[in-house]
Amino acid sequence: MKKQQKQKKNPAAMMILNGSRRRNAMKIFYLNRTEDESGISGTGRVAQGFVFDNGKVAVTWLSEHPSVTVYDSIGEVHAIHGHGGKTEVVMEPDYKKAFGELKSFVDNFSMPEAVSSKLTPDGPASKLMTKA
Asked: Same domain, yes or no, for 20 and 75?
């Protein structure tokens, strides 16, 4: 009888199975290279990719011969393609979330409340604020 191997637990996968990870949490990133050691990929945005909910990563090169590679983690991508800091993994912001936060702030913003503590009660700016 063979001895059963103990399987490694993947924390990201466990969170998904337990339902504690939000859906559609995939992240978008690009690789920004400041110096091209090989003379092949160039500088600037050289690749783009996704970090999936389970932690796996897909990268495609923005070159004449684009290929797609899947990695176990974003750390692996950085270790292989970082070239000692010459290539940076840059995460794209979550614009939808940022817009929602900004909209919430604007919807709840009150100019009189924001400036009332900064104005002298009998000053000209206070008088203008009370006219409105």
From this structure: yes
